[in-house]
Amino acid sequence: MRSMTGFGQAAAASNGYKIQIDIRSVNHRYQEISVRLPREWIAYEESVRKRVQRRISRGRVEVYASIARDPETPPPVAVNWAVADAYVNMAREMVSRYSLSGMPGPSELLALPEVLRIEEVDDGRKEELADSLLECVDSALDRLVAMRETEGAALKEDLVNRIRKVEKLRESMSELYPEAVTQAEQKLRQRIGTLLKDVSAFDEERFRREPAVMGGRMSIDEELTRLESHIRQMEKTLEQTEPIGRKLDFLVQEMNREANTIGSKANDAAIGGLVVEMKAELEKMREQIQNIE
């Protein structure tokens, strides 16, 4: 089980360049990937995106890539001979026109604008750099996934503890339910006894039918059974290795629905208190599940 929140970073050096990849992921209902590469490397954006898609199935993922020349590595420089020739020809013309002596030396020529230029990366070297870039992306993804799995383990432990609390609350409701029906019957008997002035008119058979109807309205057996089924499903789901966030979210919604129905049908203060506790646990579970892949 993985969290959707994480961070991974990796760096590499290749052909006089330094590459750094930062990958961040946060909660998102679906898979959303944003890749930011330097403009001259934009052609490799789709390759980076596909690598992320293979490893991350859900969440918003942001990939930042920095590719810059290594300041400790001398850059490949070359003389722009056309510009240098133009300067030399102009110097000769000035010497001839104004009867000057001497010509500019190499150091003076090299200091002139645009005489020296940094060579662009050729296609062969660029392919090597692209390979290093993608390897760096893979390394950053390894670290991101590892962090998501670590956080996922912590989320799983928390959810397991909360599921146990919900199960105990369900068991307590099941134990209280028969007594709640009995108390409701006693209250009904007292109310009827108070309202009837002529005790001889009391219809015992009709009274026995009324609690039976009332008991049917109060019955929470089905809700408790479905609640137990949802709990078992959630326990099994937490052991799965594929993304389970959406399934867990659905199960918590169903459990919350059953809790609401129990609270409205039971009409008992003790059971109502347990329902409030259960809904509080389910809400905490729902918040945690929003961060699960």
Quickly list its features.
alpha+beta; Ribosomal Protein S5, domain 2; 3 domains
Protein model, in words:
The chain is α+β, with helices and mostly antiparallel strands and 293 residues long. The chain folds into 3 domains: 6-73 and 123-149, Ribosomal Protein S5, domain 2, CATH 3.30.230; 77-118, no CATH class; 151-289, no CATH class. It contains 8 helices and 6 strands; from the N terminus they run βββαββααβααααα. The protein has helices at 45-55, 81-98, 106-110, 123-195, 204-218, 221-237, 245-266, 269-289, and strands at residues 6-14, 17-26, 31-36, 59-69, 77-79, 116-118. The strands form 2 sheets. The protein has a 4-stranded mixed β-sheet with strand order 1-2-4-3. Strands 5-6 form a two-stranded antiparallel sheet. The protein is rod-shaped. The mean pLDDT is 85.
Short description:
The chain has 293 residues and is α+β, with helices and mostly antiparallel strands. It has helices at residues 45-55, 81-98, 106-110, 123-195, 204-218, 221-237, 245-266, 269-289; strands at 6-14, 17-26, 31-36, 59-69, 77-79, 116-118.
SSE inventory with pairings:
Blueprint: E1 6-14, E2 17-26, E3 31-36, H1 45-55, E4 59-69, E5 77-79, H2 81-98, H3 106-110, E6 116-118, H4 123-195, H5 204-218, H6 221-237, H7 245-266, H8 269-289
Parallel strand pairs: 3-4
Antiparallel strand pairs: 1-2, 2-4, 5-6
Number of domains: 3
Give me the strand/helix succession: EEEHEEHHEHHHHH
Shape field = rod-shaped
Q: List unreliable stretches of 5+ residues.
A: none
Number of strands: 6
Helix content: 55-70%
Widest sheet: strand order? 1-2-4-3
Beta-strand fraction estimate? 5-15%
Structural class: alpha+beta
- Helix count, DSSP H or I runs of 4 or more residues: 8
Distance between the termini: 7 Å
Biggest sheet architecture: 4 strands, mixed
Give the overall pLDDT as a whole number. 85
Gyration radius over CA? 38 Å
